[in-house]
Specification:
12 helices, 419 residues, 5-stranded antiparallel beta sheet
Length: 419
């Protein structure tokens, strides 16, 4: 895409990085008087614009210390470029900090440069091949590969292709690839972020070291929500039968194009921890081969690859990499076994908002208007009140009653931060 030059409100300071979905810049917000990260979408089609908007909308309503805060979504009038702004994190990605030995650097990108680790974001076609020119682009495949119909129709040739995973070396490492104290500190905060997302019905679907930024004070932020799945919505981005995500960190169910839940993120967390401790991902090689390994091959045990790793940590990683979602440990199990604690009080905002208590008089008036509509009349109802007074709960209670009584309900929403 052409470089976004900024506009009357945002002055571009520097390009931070480029990924398959667009480019991230450091920018000066002239209205707020602060520096922000600005993500400009690579122009494609209406579907891409829809996904870009949804990425913003899903996360803009979520507020948590371990999530990047989003500000505004807009389309530049002159260039037609869609973009949104968010926190500019003063930090570096998890792998660079823990494995690369890098100091936490200022203004690190929320994306990686082409040719880097984001090269793993690939698409496979319906014959299991990797199309040329898309290795740095995250897209949807035509169909997920399965062990029975890709690579080679000859079972023996196929079996030979699914080789043992690449490991750090024949002899075990003398010790972990990263500082375990730092790892535990970061892991505690990653668990907090995932627990919060899962409580809200959100599955991240692209958890990997590049999407975890560590600030100068050791604070962790989870970012890049371009392919999240909102389980509260009937139609989430990405459909069954398609593979979407970053190949070395895909859960078996994600790699096979099946529906995914919160446990899919926990498998990805296992891949992330495996890499940080051993210095290598559990499965390596060509993209299609790795997709099949996730589905069919047990991951090597960390205990056989690295010496002097606490047994409780190797056990957790092994269990997180279980093929069956129900066999993976819960977030609370991980905390208990590793002696970690949550740093933040759990606040199930969406669940709390869905509870309807009181307001019977107001609901009765709305039912009267609904009855008028049922008789062929036109009724328009405005619900006003302070934030937190129960407007959404009141509306949801009416909608639930209307659906039960056979009404067809259309939903809409005004996104106040979209320019």
């Amino acid at each position: 895409m052409d470089e976004f030059q900024g506009n009357a409100r945002y002055r571009i300071i520097a390009k931070l990085g480029t990924g398959g979905m667009g480019t991230v810049y450091e920018a000066q917000d002239r209205v707020r008087g602060i520096r922000v990260a600005l993500k400009a979408m690579a122009p494609r089609n209406a579907q891409s614009v829809g996904r870009f908007k949804r990425e913003f909308r899903v996360v803009a309503d979520l507020h948590h210390p371990n999530l990047v805060q989003l500000y505004d979504l807009a389309c530049d009038e002159d260039s037609g470029v869609w973009y949104y702004t968010m926190d500019l994190v003063d930090g570096t990605d998890l792998a660079s900090l823990l494995i690369g030995g890098h100091e936490v650097a200022s203004g690190l990108s929320t994306q990686t440069e082409p040719g880097g680790r984001d090269n793993w974001q690939v698409v496979v076609d319906d014959k299991g091949r990797e199309p040329r020119g898309v290795r740095s682009t995250l897209q949807l495949s035509q169909r997920a590969p399965s062990p029975t119909d890709v690579l080679d129709p000859n079972p023996e040739a196929h079996a030979a292709t699914i080789m043992a995973p690449v490991v750090p070396g024949e002899d075990p490492r003398p010790g972990p690839a990263c500082d375990l104290t730092l790892l535990y500190n970061c892991l505690s905060q990653i668990l907090d972020a995932l627990e919060f997302l899962h409580t809200q019905g959100i599955v991240h679907r692209d958890l990997k070291p590049e999407n975890v930024l560590v600030g100068r004070q050791g604070d962790v932020r989870l970012l890049d929500f371009g392919i999240v799945k909102d389980t509260n919505l009937e139609h989430a981005t990405g459909s069954a039968g398609h593979v979407i995500g970053t190949v070395p960190y895909l859960s078996p169910e994600q790699a096979s194009g099946k529906e995914v839940g919160a446990s899919s993120d926990l498998y990805s967390l296992g891949c992330l921890l495996f890499e940080l401790v051993t210095g290598a991902v559990p499965f390596d090689g060509a993209a299609v081969r790795v997709l099949l390994m996730h589905q069919t091959m047990p991951a090597p045990s960390v205990a056989t690859l690295v010496r002097d790793v606490p047994s409780e940590l190797t056990d957790i990683i092994d269990r997180l990499l279980a093929k069956r979602p129900e066999a993976r440990p819960s977030i609370n199990e991980i905390r208990n076994l590793l002696g970690l604690s949550s740093r933040h009080e759990r606040r199930p905002e969406r669940e709390a908002a869905s509870l309807f208590v009181g307001r019977e008089a107001e609901l009765a008036r709305m039912h009267k208007a609904l009855g008028s509509a049922a008789s062929g009349g036109l009724s328009l109802v405005f619900v006003a009140g302070e934030s937190g007074s129960g407007k959404t709960a009141l509306a949801e209670a009416l909608v639930a009653d209307a659906v039960r009584d056979g009404f067809m309900v259309f939903r809409g929403r005004c996104y106040e931060r979209e320019v």
